[in-house]
Amino acid sequence: MERDSGPEGVRRALGRLLEAVLASRGQANAVFDVLAVLQSEDHEETQEAVRACSRLFGALLERGELFVGSLPSEDAVMAGSQGATRKYKVWMRHRYRSCLNRLQELLVHPSFEVKELALSTLMKFVQLEGARPLEKPKWDGYYLFPRQLFKAVVEGLLSPEDDCSLLLARFREYLEHDDIRYHTMQAATDTVGRVTDRHPEVPLTFWNNAFTLLSSVSLPSQERGISSFYVKHGELPRTWKVVHLKEHRKAFQGMWLGFLKHKLPLSLYKKVLVIMHDSILPHLAQPSLMIDFLTRAYDVGGAISLLALNGLFILIHQHNLEYPDFYRKLYGLLDPSVFHVKYRARFFHLADLFLSSSHLPAYLVAAFAKRLSRLALTAPPEALLMVLPFICNLLRRHPACRVLVHRPLGHELDADPYDPEEEDPAKSRALESSLWELQALQQHYHPEVSQAASVINQALSVPEVSIAPLLELTAFEVFERDLKKKGQGSVPLEFIPARGLLGRQDDFCAQHFTLS
Amino acid sequence: MGKARLAAARTRGAGAPAGAQGGRARPNPNPFEVKVNRQKFPVLGRKARHAVGQPGVSRARAVHKRTQTLLKEYKERDKSNVFTDKRFGEYSSTMSPEEKMMKRFALEQQRQHEKKSIYNLNEDEELTHYGQSLADIEKHNDIVDSDSDTEERGTLSAELTAAHFGGGGGLLHKKTPQQQGEEGEKPRSRRELIEELIAKSKQEKRERQAQREGALELTEKLDQDWKEIQTLLTHRTPKSENRDKKERPKPDAYDMMVRELGFEMKAQPSNRMKSEEELAKEEQERLQQLEAARLRRMRGEDEGSEARKPKHLSADDLNDGFVLDKDDRRLLSYTDGKMSIEEEQSGEASDGESEEEQGEDLSEEDPENSSDPDGHSDLESDMDSEEDCGRPSGEPRQALGEGTTSIGHRAQEAARNQLPYTFAAPESYEELKSLLSGRTREEQLVVVERIQTCNHPSLAVGNKAKLEKLFGFLLEYIGDLATDDPPNLRVIDKLVVQLYNLCQMFPDSASDSIKFVLRDAMHEMEGAIEARGRAAFPGLDVLMYLKIAGMLFPTSDLWHPVVTPALVCMSQLLTKCPVLSLQDVVKGLFVCCVFLDYVSLSRRFIPELVNFLLGILYIASPNKCGRGYTLVHPFRASGKNSELLVVSDEEDKATWQRRGLSLHWAYRLKAQNKTEANHTRLSCLAVCLALVKGCTQFYSSLPSFYAIVRPLRALLMEHLAGRSHPPELQELCQSALANLEEPEPRCRPLVCAKSKPEPLKLFTPRLVKVLEFGRKQGSSKQEQERRRLIHKHKREFKGAVREIRRDNQFLARMQLSETLERDAERKRKVKQLFNSLATQEGPAPSHAEAPPDNQKVCPGNIQ
């Protein structure tokens, strides 16, 4: 067979072969030529071959010219004495299988176009095979889905070596369909289990790929939503598992639990926890099963603990979870870094929720107030503007804690009785202390902060100050606000004339820096 | 009979209250005309409006009214002609009567101006008033307006009196034309007399006027003369007074005279020259005042808010937060004998005052040289300001204690001589840059100075804007200089003085410019933080801007439009920028120094600064045990930069000498060898320790000082424990620690300020507006209103129906009476006819009797 050079020539040649194969069974051997081009090094040629295969086997699938049922080995059939049609079908089915194998290999091809094309071709085969199954139904109305093929696709997507995020983004379109989603969940659970069994040290790329795939699965919230199927069926019998949201949820839960039971890298912990409360927990069949993961994350410490709080809160609040020493751990989470982490707003929002109960013991609230005000001594102004009203709100909610700012009959103390090192809020002796830190912050350089701290000088007003608008405050916003504020009258000026860049003799700058 | 008496008695009983209430009851009503509506039982508070009625009277009134209106209409029901009033503008309310008259007059004229009279040129029109010829009236009574007569205030001349009232001769009694005609001789002479009188008085008036004008002219002339003399006499009279005098209305002759005498050529003593002590004292006082204002701003005692605070709580205060915050009434006062209404000086902003004083100080100096009437002002002020500017720029050099003073002066002199004397103010930054680039430091300074002097705002109108722009350009130029390679800090050092001067002149625009550059810097940093979560330390230019902002504006204010954002900016620098290199350490320490300088007077607390110093101490600590302190954000306990400042080379430690850090290092550490780098590290640590010491001094009075410095103390102990630092650093450590080691002061529990006792809740009755008595209460206000309207409508409707019915009855009565009248008339006429017929027939019987006779005869005859 003559071959023109270049992709154009290849395409024409492939077109001719295709027509020949489809026209008569006698020309079936031309399939080998098509499959050979599939192995080509050239990206363009590979793409052409993939397209040709897609058309070829698509047509064959539609015509039903592939063997249906469990596939016997090629040699046995060829040697056997079955009819020529059966031989042809089995033979063609073998070609089809080798084509699929090659396409799976192409899923990790360096070129994205090829990968994408391979993926869409495979998905096309999934659709066609689903419509005309290549296996015999066990009984009438049995639900058939090309599970093997689809599992292979998912496995190709969850490559341990390559970053497949782009391909996964493409795959997300198919996840719109309910059956695809259902089988993806099952296949992903399998794949994750197999990969973690196989590798002792699972590479980070696999985790990232798996997380990308898992996080793109989003269940509908209502049973009625399950109606869009990728593989078209006439009517949907209620006996099929795939039409029930409950089954979907089970699969979803199995998938996540299977994923989260492994030891994840820290960066992934954060990613999972960030989406935990609104895309994972609501869709689980039994959300309380997530408690293991959440407690593990809560014990990690630092930002991860802060993030785990959110999920824990939902479990405690909506699923009656009993969490011993919850407040003690929360108390332990308070260290100077809470004012500097990215999740500050989320953390304080939750802390506000946790401490909003009026049934908390006074010692606990006092310990929190004292701890927060201690930490406020290291906080930047934008955090102070939020945390000072927060502390005042605590005192407002719990009148028993007002002794922290108002102890008219107290004796003078030698030292602050509060023990900052103590981990148990009950033993921190916060109730015996006073919030001198707030008094110190009244001397803060930023006027709004000092004003906020001066609130304690007067008896606290009754209504709470809403801290919601303050949670997301950034330093830049504070800066902009200060810039826009207009003073009355003209700008006051320095009356000591400037003499030079470093200022007066006794200034720190002049003492410690030189111009040369 | 009995009934009537009863009614009368009742009337008497009820009439008294009715009279007391309404006052409408007739004083002595006829008891038979009074109808009393008896109340079954008295209800307290109910107004009995219709207790007594007078049906007869009201009916009569209604009938009367109907005869006035309805009957008239009825009578004119078949008449179609209408009376129209065609007087011009009679019913238009928009025209004033004068206008109306004018228009009417014009119309009249038009109407009369017919074709035949168009060639009639000099026919004078006769003006009339109330139909009488005005000319006629004028002749009779042209009364001299005695009010316009200023000389004889109120008193009339004898002749006039005689003429008008004299002798009671009834001369001016208005006489009918017939009377006048009868006694023609005498009145004519009288009239002449009066005319003469009038002419005389008019002439007198004219003369008086001329005289007055002459006097005024003279006064003006005198004023001008005086001014000339005055300027010769003294400079001291303030300009403003002159201006006032011009604006004032012309004084009268007497005042003028007095003043003339008062201002006789007298040498006025000018202010004596002040001795140096006095000058110093004045300066000191001024500084004290400024310092007091600064302290007030530092404590945040806003003058405005103080004024707003009500000093006195009235007994009527409802404690509802309402405060009459400004008394709008104006105070009446007299200045220079003229009434003037001044705004109340309400606790005038004292910093405004001080600034005013400052302004006055300036303006006091100003007129001496710059606002001279002669044309020398330019030169003088030029010289002066050059000296002014030269002085401070020369001084820092002395302060720095370098030996280059005289050389610098010489160079400056040289620069002064070489450069042109005038520079146009740059319109763009590029222009300024082209002016300054390529010149030496001294020349640049001189150029900037000269730009300022050439464009002093007192010289031309647009100069203010030009110089305001110059400030922004200079700031930009400084930014460029700071980012140059190497940074040209010396020039910045000098330019700061110029910036200060410009800032003193235009505080608002200067603050805007600085805000602008700060916003730029922050914006850049914010972008980096958004993108990567952290930002690098900015270039030297931002640090320079921060430093300069602290020098131009008072940093101790509680709130300041420039300083507060600058503080936030520095806080960002210290919390968001990780320390990655030695260069970052130098920059960070510089920011710390600036930060601490900002609060050096106000002693305000800066958490970020303590955190940063803690971090620096940590990265300099050779052996960390990490107990007793927690690092915060930009620093990490472990990582590649956690030992950035650790020096392990013993030799380098031995050779280290304590020196100030160079700002050039903040720009770029020149390829330093290892020893130099180590020395820099040690210097950084020394600066850090000094700053720690400064902090502890500043904050030792804070209530929770111990909690604030606890981590610092722990780290310093670590440093000391290692004993690995050079002795000088050890000493520094010791002294810093000594401040921290002080025993914690006794803690006094916090107590809130006693709040004002809350007033008792008074049980004032809830007032419900009763719109209508009866069962219509207890619903919402709208509902009540609706019901009230429905009720009113119903009543009105009924009333209208009743009225219509009564009208119809009245009309029917009228028609009936008409018919009756007509019938009666007819009857009467018929009767009359009959009567007349009867009278005609009266003689007829005789006549008729005759016929019977005739008849008698006739039949007889016939018979």
TrEMBL record, chain A:
Pfam families: CBF (PF03914). Residues 305-453 form the CCAAT-binding factor domain. Belongs to the CBF/MAK21 family. Keywords: Membrane, Transmembrane, Transmembrane helix. This is Nucleolar complex protein 4 homolog. It is found in: Nucleus membrane. It comes from Mustela putorius furo. One of its GO terms (biological process) is ribosome biogenesis. GO terms for cellular component: Noc4p-Nop14p complex; nuclear membrane; small-subunit processome. It comes from the Eukaryota. It is a multi-pass membrane protein.
UniProtKB/TrEMBL annotation, chain B:
It is found in: Nucleus, Nucleolus. Keywords: Nucleus, Ribosome biogenesis, rRNA processing. Residues 1-26 have a biased composition (Low complexity). Pfam families: Nop14. It comes from the Eukaryota. One of its GO terms (cellular component) is small-subunit processome. Residues 342-371 have a biased composition (Acidic residues). The keyword Transmembrane does not apply. The keyword rRNA processing applies. One of its GO terms (biological process) is maturation of SSU-rRNA. One of its GO terms (molecular function) is enzyme binding. Residues 1-33, 138-323, 335-404, 832-863 are annotated as: Disordered. Its main location: nucleus. Involved in nucleolar processing of pre-18S ribosomal RNA. Has a role in the nuclear export of 40S pre-ribosomal subunit to the cytoplasm. Belongs to the NOP14 family. This is NOP14 nucleolar protein. The gene is NOP14.
